[in-house]
Amino acid sequence: MSDMQSARRDLSCPTLPGPDVRKIIAGVLLIVLVLFGQQLYGRVTAAGRLNPALQGATGPRNVIVVLDFIPDRFHNERVAEYGVFAGRDGTLNRIRLRNVSPDSLARLAAVAWVARIEPLP
Amino acid sequence: MSMAKASNRSSARRALDQVAWRLLPLVPFALVLAAWIAYWTIARPPPATLPAVPDVAAALWELAAKGELATHVAASLWRLLLGVLLGAISGVIGGFIVGLNRSVSEFISPLVVFFNAISGIVWLPLVIGWLGIGTALAVFLIWNTVFFIVFQNTVLGVQLVPQVYEQGVQALGGGRWETIRTVILPGALPYILTGLRSGLGFGWRALIAAELVGATTGLGQMIFGATEYHRSDIIIGGCLIIGVIAIAMDRWLLLPIEQRTIERWGLVFDARKEE
Amino acid sequence: MSASAARSAPARLREHRKGLAAGRPLRNLKILLPFAVLVAAWWAIYLSVDFSPQVLVSPLAVWRAFAHLVSHGVMAEYASTSLRMIGFAALLSLLVGVPMGFAVGINRYAAHALDGFLRFLQGISGIAWLPLAIIWFGFTHTTTLVIVIYTLIVPIVFNTMIGVRAIPEAYTLALRSLGASRLRLVKDVYLPGALPSIVVGLRLGMGYGWRALIAAEMLVRKGGLGDLIFGARTFGQIDRIITGMIVIGCLYIVVDRLIIQPIENLTIARWGVLRQ
User: Fold this and answer.
1) What's the rounded Cα separation, in Å, for the pair B236 and C177?
2) pTM over 0.90
3) Are residues C245 and B227, on separate chains, in Cβ contact within 8 Å?
4) Which residues of C143-167 are buried (b: 16+ CB within 10 A; e: fewer)?
5) Which of B101, C73, C214, C227 has the most CB atoms at less than 10 Å from its CB?
6) B210: nearest CA in chain C?
7) Is the per-residue pLDDT at A115 higher than 70?
């Protein structure tokens, strides 16, 4: 009698997705992590990067992009996409950019490997 | 009398059908050729973009006459031979060692999956520092490609030999070596041959890729070198030769070997001709 | 009746499932152990022989290079470029290749005609066409995409063709005798029947395509993991090369074993009945 009851209970319980479906979910999640993980992290921490003086900018600004490391050509190229490259600010890891539009500023702040964005005096 | 005429007509039609069936595979090639000629006559593209058909033939003829073509083909085939031999021998030996030992094969399996995932050209930047440009690099890359294919197929073949045959030989008093020679080897042979056939195809493709990036002679280098001078005629001609050699090797070298060995050992195996 | 025999089937199934759940961490360990041994052997060899850093680096150096590339945003971008490229190429190849495979597979003569031609094209790997693609499209992403699609589409068309041809005529005849339209036939017979083969073709294609992608990226040098490892070669950065190689292998394994192979299993489980 108790066996029949447990049988009915098992049939009504929803079964876990099979091993194949679990693998697919895990695989897709991993790929999504690779594709968007760092971008997402950058976007979530964007507020901390932008100097308060630059928040809510309405027109193009001149900024200093500060990195935590000496940039490769890769990083110089990427940073230069957001404004007009205007040389270094003292050390190699401080890059001057002119004419950065508010939209580009927001996007630059969302880049995960940028440490800070300071206003260019 | 009319029956004889009718049967003559149907046998003639059957013969015609057979001929048509044989010629059918040539149709796509003919269509591509026709499209090429048509496009060239109508659009007159610059020779660097799409050369005329006779230009390609002329370029090939010129290379053949100068002996360059033979040099390149020989260099490529030589590298292929070395790489495939090394890959096949190491693959079969490795496959037997691992296939016969279940715990070893279970342990090694994840490693094989991983190294198979990076087999071939992915090793190029690393190995070019060890072996430089040239034949050694190409042979390594081919060996790498062929080894994993032959190895995996051999392991599969060895493991799939029905245990009852092994036990039969052992019951008759045969030792380990006896078992391997008389039962496992013939039993695994279809898989080994499939692996060799695949391996040869993959090896040829890996060779061309390797020569594109790191060689001084060979068909791959021939077509890549021609890029600098915008000689599309050489490139297209070279590609056609690469394709012809691939088909020739598969059809006239391997397929007969595969069929004859399977016939000889009378193995019941659905030789997958379409794969 | 003994206590064990009195246990019902559902109870046994529950225990079996619990056993499986307990076994999973053990199975994961079994997968990781060989790699741990490999890294240990690598380290041992590295320590015992005095290798120049141009030839081999230690596992630690590789790990540091990986951390460096990730924290500097380099790895994410190059890996994403490659993944996007293969994904896009796979999508396009399926959209074009499957209908082509259907169209050809349905007709016996077309299938026989194209068999040799497709093999020929496969023999000239996509990479061999790279020089021509460079002349036509330059050193751009278009070149890479064209080559990868070429490499991917041939196995897809081929296997779709095989899949369609393997469907027993009885099924198509049965539905047609019930008055089904062509479209209905495709949806209810051809597509499910050929689906396992299509996925097999996709899997093969991804194997060829991923390799072709890496090779193309090495030559075109416009981003992607092939560019990363080939570029690192120029500076002799063996640690970056090995990192790149490992990432290339791991990404392929994730896509192949965690996504495509389970899909293959599911389609065969559901529609593979037709094969018998």
Assistant:
1) 49
2) no
3) no
4) bbbbbbbbbbbbbbbbbbbbbbbeb
5) C214
6) C215
7) yes
